[in-house]
Write a structure and sequence with these properties.
The structure holds two protein chains of two kinds. Chain A is built from seven helices and seven strands, in the order αβαβαβαββαββαα. Chain A is α+β, with helices and mostly antiparallel strands. In chain A, a hairpin with a 2-residue loop joins strand 4 and strand 5. In chain A, helix 2 runs antiparallel to helix 6 and helix 6 runs antiparallel to helix 7. The N and C termini of chain A lie far apart (41 Å). Chain B is 56% helix and 7% strand. The N and C termini of chain B lie far apart (73 Å).
């Protein structure tokens, strides 16, 4: 298991014009949480152009279904993406989860108003806002997230305190 | 008078039906009931299920029950919603780490993350090597 490779995956997607929003651990780190994460989670737009860009961007990095037995007849193309919705992949750059719809946040278009652009790795990436990230974590309803939600809420309080004092 | 009511589970936020009398019986003996009521009263947004549950306990104590309440399952709690469970976890959060991180740029936060993960990987590798040298 290796660390999430944000510094290669995010610029790759941005440079290929993929429309996506970083959620999960990546967004938490961007907002200032001191946490570890092992994969990159993004919500992607499902229009034909974006699917094509996603395919083009990741093809050289051999995406394959994470946890699936080797040798499955998996085809990495637009048609496969269209037939599915949420995918968990291994790539030569590291693990990447692409979600067409996220619990509590919906699709890319629905999540877009709750995202913000931030500079990272020489490009401008779109991350879900801290406020929405807390709601997404809550909506996921996983016990393992309770501690993370507490940290995110503490972070929000710290940020509000800092902003009010400046 | 209907026995159950529709609510949204504070854990999974999915619609669920709760038996009011069972809920009242379960919640009433909780020692932290007063603390929960107090914390809930101070929240800017009220969790509909918790509001209903606390009301059910109060009504049960007074020997009366209320009518069923309907709650929108799509009603997500605001980010600063004060959930007693989360509040319990929040006590142990190291805020000094968060304050230090808030001083950094996004790039620096990711750099720090990468350095830490390198350190973790180094420790793992050292552990692996130590196990190999120990084994016959």
């Amino acid at each position: 298991m290796t660390a999430a490779n944000f510094d290669e995956i995010l610029p790759l997607l941005v440079r290929n014009g993929v429309r996506f929003i970083v959620i999960g651990g990546g967004a938490a780190i961007a907002h200032g949480l001191a946490r570890t994460t092992y994969d990159v989670h993004v919500v992607y737009a499902r229009d034909a152009d974006n699917l094509q860009r996603l395919v083009t961007a990741l093809t050289p990095h051999q995406p394959y279904l994470r946890g699936a037995p080797l040798g499955l007849p998996f085809r990495w193309d637009e048609q496969t993406l269209r037939a599915g919705l949420n995918f968990t992949f291994t790539t030569t750059l590291g693990d990447l989860d692409i979600l067409g719809d996220v619990t509590g946040g919906g699709t890319y278009e629905q999540l877009l108003p709750f995202s913000e652009e931030m500079p990272a790795f020489g490009v401008s990436c779109r991350f879900v806002t801290l406020e929405k990230l807390i709601q997404l974590k809550r909506a996921a309803g996983r016990t393992k997230d309770l501690e993370v939600i507490a940290e995110l809420q503490a972070l929000l309080e710290e940020r509000q305190q800092r902003d009010s004092s400046t | 008078m209907p026995e159950g009511f529709h609510g949204v589970c504070s854990g999974c936020w999915s619609p669920c039906v709760v038996r009011r009398t069972a809920l009242a019986q379960n919640l009433a003996p909780i020692a932290a009931f007063a603390a929960i009521t107090d914390a809930h009263a101070r929240c800017s947004w009220k969790n509909p299920l918790l509001s209903a549950a606390l009301a059910a306990v109060q009504c049960n104590r007074q020997g009366r029950m209320r009518n069923a309440v309907m709650i929108d399952p799509h009603d997500l709690a605001p980010p600063d919603y004060c959930d007693p469970v989360i509040e319990a976890y929040k006590k142990d959060v190291d805020r000094t780490l968060l304050r230090e991180n808030l001083k950094l740029t996004v790039e620096e936060r990711f750099h720090k993350f990468k350095q830490f993960m390198k350190y973790v990987e180094g420790l793992r590798e050292a552990g692996r090597k130590a196990r190999e040298t120990r084994s016959p």
